[in-house]
Amino acid sequence: MSDTLAPPALQPSRASTSGSSVPAHCCVSVTVIIEHRDTLGRLLPAGTEVELCDITRRTYTARIDEYGISRHEGVTPGRVAWQLRDLQGQHLVAVDDEPCDPRQAAAAPPECDVVADETTLRATYLPPPIVINLRKDADASAPDLLSDEELEQLRLAGNNATLFLHGYNVPFGGYHHFANWEQRDDVTERPMLVPSGSARIATIRQELKGVSIHLPPRAWGNHYPSSNDASSDQLEALLNGSAAHSWCLHMEYRLNAAAGMQDDDWRPYTRIVGVAWSGDTGTVDFFQAELNAMAAGRRLVALLNQLHEAGISINVISHSLGARVILTALNILGEQDHYQVLDNLYLWQPAVADNALVNDPSQDSHPLGMGIFPDAHKAVRNVVVLLSQEDGILGPPPADTRSFWRQLAERDQAIRGALWLLETLGADDWLDELIGTAGGAYGKKWWVFPSGLSTPITQYYLDKAPAHTVRPPTPSQPPVGPDPYGIERAARGWQAFKEQAMQEARDALASGDALPTYHLLAPLAHHAVISEARAAQYVDTLQALVARHWRAGKTPRAALGHIGFGAVRNESRFVEGKLRAKNYDFVDQTLWLFDHSGMRIPSDEVFEKSYKEGIYDRIKESSRFGRYE
Q1: How far apart are CA 333 and CA 95, in angstroms?
Q2: What is the DSSP string of 202-221?
Q3: 30 pairs with which residues across the strands?
């Protein structure tokens, strides 16, 4: 929180960044005073260690006091540089109101000349990044809510919050940590903190906990040891974090750029709120990832309530299966009669059914009733779907693209076998069958092979459901006895399963919890409270699915991120009305977004048409992003 203490009188800054030499009559040593604040005007935390280096390569360590000041005495006049030793993400963006590039400061801070007996510098830093960890494997101490300091950060930064939820198969990851620099005399690979007038032959430790801003890979190649031969992708991994942290970092930088931030002045830079969840369940275990998404969405409700009750405007961007996380939270809020909690929701390539946002649960085609979020619309003012028919994960490519592959196959004898596979399996895209993931992995999520619904559901209920239910009894060989095929055992097992599920529903209701915990009924976690009737119907539906040997009997509806509202608007007056009122809208990216995750490192066209026109320009119509106008 911001400090109300008055700092001691500060001398006007007499620092220079012009590179002038030190006067011959200058004193033997000087005192350097640095006032540390972030771009929101808050003093940096007292006790933070600051390491300053002078022209002789000596370092002077001091701690920030209660007034936000570090005092470094006995410094040799001339060039100095400094770094924060213990704070993550507090990147330097200005000295004495002169902007500096934090991407360069991360490797070599700006240097200032100090020549007076006492020189005061005013340093301005970015506020820290904000990440909420809703993963199942998160440390028990990881909070689901924002701290008071984080809430104040959002209030001061325009009184709004933009949340980002990543998609499927994204681990937690982390920000990039610099390795210690090795001793070297190569002037192009200057160690951290050594001012440019020094001999530069030194071992200086780089103590940054993590770099939480986007670093352009090629521009940074000469700052990172042994990176000259690395590819752009390898440099990305080295510099810009990994997994969920990398996604947040890229999303945050592009949103700020779309809002108008220039690379020569980062002081307007706004932090988003990254939300991590357990989507990394393996490439074929999509159903378990859906369960994890709903569990995370259930926990997300508290965060959305916290922001809403604090009077902070909320905008949310989700990617891929992250849509199920936020739609679960919104459906619960809608069931609880919380209206218009969010200003805007941007579903980027959402991996949910195209009719997920209808208000009629009877239209749900999911075999277990997990496809529709009928009350989600109540908790959000506007929903925008960013779709692309060229997304090979969510569905087959457009007809003209399939025609291209067919023509190519007909001309090339080497791949005629692929054309045979296309005809034999009736697949939409033969390339999908060859690589197993692209061209419609989403549409195959109910296939019996290789995993489909059977394996994850069986695994989930292995220690929860009664015997002889999701794993049917094995017939005796030879068939003897009163129940050789296990029919009666299965019937007793399913009856016990239903009674236990209904009891769980009764116990949850009796607990009085607004969001009780469910185990047997976890696949229905997108509902706040589950009734006995719904619990019984769920078990009946599951029993019928097992009896059909896990065959859903239908194909999944097309993904919302692949076809948008094109089909469902003709089936639902509700959706058509929302589209006419512009409460539901879409951005068709088919002509410029060609893969499922193409927005993480976007082309110029994706940046301009998706980030700027598709998201930021729409946010500012009804809400705000940071302090941008």
Answers
A1: 45
A2: B------S-B-S---TGGGG
A3: 75
Give the HSE-up count for residue 166: Cα atoms under 13 Å, Cβ half-sphere. 31
Cβ partners under 8 Å of residue 5, min gap 6: 66, 67
Question: What is the distance of C-alpha 139 from the center of its chain?
Answer: 18
pTM: 0.86
* DSSP string computed for 293-315: HHHHHHHHHHHHHHHHHTT-EEE
- For 558-572, how does the pLDDT look when each residue is reduced to its tens digit (9 = 90+)? 999 999 999 999 999
The tokens describing 212, both together, are: 């939480």
447-455: list long-range contacts, CB under 8 Å, 24+ apart: 448/549, 448/550, 448/551, 450/284, 451/284, 451/285, 451/286, 451/287, 452/287, 452/550, 453/287, 453/367, 453/368, 453/545, 453/550, 453/552, 454/550, 455/285
Of 163, 200, 186, the C-alpha closest to 55 is 200
Under-50 pLDDT residues of the chain: 1-25, 179-192, 194, 196-208, 226, 402-439
Q: Measured between alpha carbons, how far is 519 from 537 in angstroms, rounded to an integer?
A: 16
Q: How far apart are CA 320 and CA 347, in angstroms?
A: 8
- 20 token code pair: 């002038």
Amino acid type, 174: G
- What's the CA angle centered on 442, arms 456 and 426, to 5 degrees? 110
State the Cα–Cα distance between residues 393 and 388, nearest whole angstrom: 10
Residues 52-70: pLDDT tens digits? 988 888 999 999 999 999 9
